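Annex B. Sample input.
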Amino acid sequence: MKKILLTLGLASGLVLAGCSSTPSNPQADKALYSGMLPCADCSGIRTSLTLYSDEKDRPTQYELREEYMDSSRVGHTEVERGQWTYGNKEMDGTAYHTVVLNPESEDVESQLRYLETALNALEMLDINGDRIESELNYTLIKQ
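Annex B, continued. Sample output.
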């Protein structure tokens, strides 16, 4: 009998703990973008970017996964995690939202920037925050 009560008590505690960590806005907790980005020495980089937000839809963490295709690094996946934030940028007379990875970093090269070109797409920007002049695809699509 004691074992049953102990088991029920532990199960109840786990259920309550699980309920307390549920965000009030489950749709705002993460957004996943993915696509195949160009690669200088391989056929492409399968990329997925997950942007995490808090319950008030404020930016928190990100996870960037890059899998190199058809190169000496086939099957090699790099994973980077850090902070992100929103920004704004005017281009061609239009105001856009931007996503900035590692905004606090003093190393400009580690601050990746993406332009929110549509409700469901991010376009990778160059190191200066400008569009990359290329016929190659630099867009990640929201999943």
